[in-house]
Amino acid sequence: MIFPIVAYGAAVLRKVSQDITPDYPGLKTLIDDMWETMYASNGVGLAAPQINKDIRLFVIDSLQIFENLEDDEKGVYPDAPGVKQAFINAHVLSLDGEEWAYNEGCLSIPKIREDVMRAESVTLQYVDENFEPHTKTFNGITARVILHEYDHIEGKLFIDYLKPLRRKMLQGKLNDISKGKVKIDYKMIFPK
Questions:
Q1: What is the pLDDT of residues 26-49, one digit of tens each?
Q2: Residue numbering of the annotated binding site
């Protein structure tokens, strides 16, 4: 099932999400539906708040990014060929390395892309779909995608990293998104 994506301005996008237990109703189906929704929306990551669920769950597929790199970009990122994975109850243990800029976008904030500074690597504690615990360090593009989705379960958006003047310049576009005045090729839920 393909879920509609929650648009900028919805309260769920600003809420800190809750950990879940292994008996969370329909978890396997929910994760399958999140993959389907992410791919149908041409995303590389999707967090549960973006489908109106305030739980600590997100999926990422950075493999797609590596498949679409230009020749001069190949070999630049240390995390090739990327990662396709679901993360449940993720919590950041540490951020390491130099911050670097990369142009980010978000399915909940369509048609806006901005350079965002993020750490080179992130160490996460999380459980997988079988509720097996993991502590793992990710770097490069994969770390960036993870941190972007992790922000969603913490009630943060990529635009929060922008300088105040830049945010002010984007406010008209953000208001249009929250009012549903944006043309996109996937279903969205707009705030009331």
A1: 999 999 999 999 999 999 999 999
A2: 106, 148, 152
Q: How many domains are contained in the chain?
A: 1
Interacting residues of 109 by C-beta distance below 8 A, sequence separation 6+: 7, 8, 157, 158, 159, 174, 177
Partners of 118 in beta bridges: 100
Q: Please count the other Cβ atoms lying within 10 Å of the Cβ belonging to residue 55.
A: 18
Which pTM does this prediction carry?
0.95
CATH, residue 13: 3.90.45.10
Which residue segment(s) compose the domain that 113 sits in?
A: 5-189
Tell me how long the chain is: 192
Annotated binding site for Fe cation: 106, 148, 152
Q: Is 149 tagged catalytic?
A: yes
- Using CA atoms, how far residue 130 sits from 88, 96, 133, 178, in Å, is 10, 28, 9, 36
